[in-house]
């Protein structure tokens, strides 16, 4: 018995030392980042990012907390007055604020004038709601969850993501590679002035709605094209004029149909690709 | 500090009003009684080093320079503008130069009618309106000290607070006026509200240091071998340097938000860069003005 307890103490010491060295390793690996924990790491948390200017990169890792860092970005010299002779301008980094409440981490950048590249390392299973306006790409890698992304003047690039996605950019393209999808969730990948390029799992069951006003639509899926559902052609009467608008989207089903997936842009091609 | 500053502003207003009532069309302060007098004192440090000079005035500049001497030589110039001769006499009785040798510290403080000195508690209320000062007094302090002292200086309406050739640490505050440090070798804090901060270092600060203003530019010259981490902030200004720098990411720091249980982190708007191999954190903070970090001998 005595031997047992000594063994137990020994094991405890080794375990503690192991834990200490692991956390030390983390600290060394991320000297620049601020680590923000979720209040309940056993449940999937949600991360909401709202920037006015700057890029957002989110990478899923085997971890339970979130590492946050804002890196400086090269500024466009054309918009600034020249530096005094012999001096260089130091580029200013956008400030931001982070808060955590009820398993939701919220990151808000408050500056239109200063930009930066926000980098988040997150648990692989997490829900995301990301938005920016100017000067940056939104990139997400290796994340599974409900993903909602808004960009205005930049592209959206999703790689190796799973779950459900709603991604919309105004003046940038939307590129997404999904490895798995939630069976019952509708998804949308939309842009106004950019290409939409989406790769979905080959076995996906979905009802598709594909539309490009000024471009073409390409796919390697076997799409069973269907007529537009009832109610999508609208008729209006205005000042005695009768107007019928026929929805120009292509409707179709893959693998027998399922929840709706919309790929739409105004200017640019739409690609729907079959993943591996 | 700001409460003290506010208390002194009405005196200027009163002086201006007196001028108007007196009918001085030219804008010159006719009708005001003026006086200027000079006073010199010599003080000794007795305690063991480090020795500290603690100098304070409300209105008026402070100029401190280090030299090879081993005592403290003070010259105080008191300038008074009073509404009446009676008020002038009151001013000269009330505004006094209070010097004390407290071992390792020499205190040179200008005290007003309420015995307050710059930097004293801001809960002080000041005289009632009917007991208001009918004068405006400024005391400028010029102090020579041994080079190796520390300096703690406080002014409110000082046109300038100037320190030169001091090897010790510094803690310098002004409110309505500039701060200038020259040929420094210590670490410390230099702050003002409405004025520029200009500083040059003969040796790089060994410890963390702060240069902070609200309305004014900041320009600091360091030796060429500077190794430090710089934190820079300006709301309406740019940062310039001729040092080689490495950009560091902005890292949010834990912040307390009263009454909320949630965790909050803020970057506080600082841009971080490293000079050389990095070292003590030097913070430069202004609202309206550029920040320049300059290499000596450029």
Question: Which terms would index this structure?
Answer:
heterodimer, A: 276 residues, mainly beta, 20-stranded mixed sheet, two-stranded antiparallel ribbon, globular, disordered N terminus, B: mainly beta, 10-stranded mixed sheet, 2 helices
Characterization of the model:
The complex is a heterodimer of chains A (276) and B (298). Chain A has 276 residues and is mainly β. Chain A has one helix and 23 strands. Among the domains of chain A are: 31-74 and 92-149, no CATH class; 155-222 and 254-276, no CATH class. In chain A, the strands form two sheets. Chain A has a 20-stranded mixed β-sheet that branches. In chain A, β6 and β7 (104-109) form a beta hairpin. With 298 residues, chain B is mainly β. Chain B is 10% helix and 45% strand. Chain B has an eleven-stranded mixed β-sheet with strand order 5-6-2-8-10-12-14-22-16-21-18. A ten-stranded mixed β-sheet of chain B has the order 1-4-7-3-9-11-13-15-23-17. In chain B, strands 19-20 form a two-stranded antiparallel sheet. In chain B, a hairpin with a 7-residue loop joins β19 and β20. The longest helix of chain B has 20 residues, at 2-21. Chain B is globular and about 60 Å long. The interface between A and B is medium-sized, with 30 and 32 residues. β5 (88-90) of chain A pairs antiparallel with β17 (239-241) of chain B.
Layout of SSEs?
The complex is a heterodimer of chains A (276) and B (298).
Chain A: H1 2-29, E1 34-36, E2 46-50, E3 55-61, E4 66-71, E5 88-90, E6 96-101, E7 104-109, E8 117-123, E9 127-132, E10 138-141, E11 144-151, E12 156-169, E13 174-181, E14 187-191, E15 196-200, E16 206-212, E17 217-219, E18 224-226, E19 234-238, E20 241-245, E21 250-254, E22 260-265, E23 270-274
Parallel strand pairs in A: 2-7, 2-9, 3-8, 3-10, 9-11, 10-12, 11-12, 12-13, 12-14, 13-15, 14-22, 15-23, 16-22, 17-23
Antiparallel strand pairs in A: 1-4, 4-8, 6-7, 16-21, 18-21, 19-20
Chain B: H1 2-21, E1 33-43, E2 52-56, E3 62-67, E4 72-82, H2 85-94, E5 96-102, E6 105-111, E7 135-146, E8 150-154, E9 160-164, E10 170-173, E11 178-184, E12 188-191, E13 197-201, E14 209-212, E15 218-222, E16 228-234, E17 239-241, E18 245-248, E19 253-255, E20 263-266, E21 271-275, E22 281-286, E23 291-295
Parallel strand pairs in B: 2-6, 2-8, 3-7, 3-9, 8-10, 9-11, 10-12, 11-13, 12-14, 13-15, 14-22, 15-23, 16-22, 17-23
Antiparallel strand pairs in B: 1-4, 4-7, 5-6, 16-21, 18-21, 19-20
């Amino acid at each position: 018995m005595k031997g047992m307890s000594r063994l137990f103490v020994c094991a405890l010491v080794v375990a503690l030392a192991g834990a200490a060295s692991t956390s030390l390793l983390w600290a060394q690996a991320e000297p620049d980042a601020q680590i923000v924990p979720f209040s309940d790491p056993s449940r999937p948390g949600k991360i909401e990012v709202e920037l006015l200017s700057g890029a957002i990169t989110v990478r899923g890792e085997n971890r339970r907390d979130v590492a946050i860092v804002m890196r400086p970005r090269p500024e466009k010299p054309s918009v600034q007055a020249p530096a005094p002779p012999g001096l260089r301008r130091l580029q200013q980094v956008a400030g931001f604020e982070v808060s955590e409440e009820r398993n939701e981490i919220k990151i808000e950048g408050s500056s239109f004038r200063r930009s930066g590249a926000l980098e988040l390392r997150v648990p692989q299973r997490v829900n995301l709601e990301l938005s920016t306006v100017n000067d940056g790409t939104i990139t997400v890698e290796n994340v599974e969850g409900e993903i909602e992304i808004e960009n205005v003047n930049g592209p959206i690039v999703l790689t190796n993501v799973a779950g459900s996605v709603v991604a919309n950019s105004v003046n940038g393209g939307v590129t997404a590679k999904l490895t798995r999808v939630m069976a019952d969730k509708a998804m949308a990948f939309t842009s106004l002035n950019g290409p939409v390029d989406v790769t979905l799992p080959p076995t996906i069951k979905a009802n598709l709605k594909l539309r490009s006003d000024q471009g073409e639509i390409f796919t390697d899926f076997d799409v069973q094209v269907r007529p537009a559902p009832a109610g999508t052609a609208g008729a209006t009467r205005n000042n005695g004029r009768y107007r019928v608008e026929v929805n120009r989207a292509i409707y179709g089903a893959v693998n027998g149909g399922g929840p709706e997936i919309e790929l739409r842009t105004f200017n640019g091609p739409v690609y729907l690709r079959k993943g591996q | 500090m700001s409460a003290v500053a506010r208390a002194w502003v009405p005196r200027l207003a009163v002086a201006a009003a007196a001028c108007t009532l007196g009918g001085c069309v030219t804008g010159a302060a006719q009708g005001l009684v003026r006086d200027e007098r000079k006073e010199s004192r010599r003080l000794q440090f007795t305690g063991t080093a480090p020795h500290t000079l603690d100098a304070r005035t409300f209105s008026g500049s402070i100029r401190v320079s280090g030299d090879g001497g081993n005592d403290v030589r003070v010259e105080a110039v008191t300038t008074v503008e009073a509404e009446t001769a009676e008020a002038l006499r009151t001013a000269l009785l009330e505004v006094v130069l209070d010097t004390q040798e407290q071992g390792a510290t020499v205190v040179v403080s200008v005290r007003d009618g309420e015995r307050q000195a710059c930097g004293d508690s801001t809960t002080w209320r000041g005289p009632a309106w009917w007991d208001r000062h009918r004068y405006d007094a400024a005391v400028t302090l010029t102090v020579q000290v041994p080079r190796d002292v520390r300096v703690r200086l406080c002014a409110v309406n000082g046109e300038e607070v100037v320190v030169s050739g001091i090897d010790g640490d510094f803690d310098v505050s002004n409110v309505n006026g500039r701060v200038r440090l020259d040929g420094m070798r210590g670490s410390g804090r230099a702050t003002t509200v409405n004025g520029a901060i200009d500083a040059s270092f003969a040796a790089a600060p060994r410890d963390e240091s702060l240069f902070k203003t609200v309305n004014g530019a900041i320009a600091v010259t360091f030796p060429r071998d500077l190794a430090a981490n710089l934190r820079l902030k300006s709301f309406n200004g740019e940062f310039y340097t001729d040092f080689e720098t490495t950009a560091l990411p902005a890292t949010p720091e834990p912040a307390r938000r009263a009454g909320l249980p949630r965790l909050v982190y803020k970057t506080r708007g600082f841009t971080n860069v490293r000079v050389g191999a990095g070292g003590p954190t030097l913070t430069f903070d202004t609202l309206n003005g550029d920040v320049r970090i300059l290499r000596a001998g450029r």
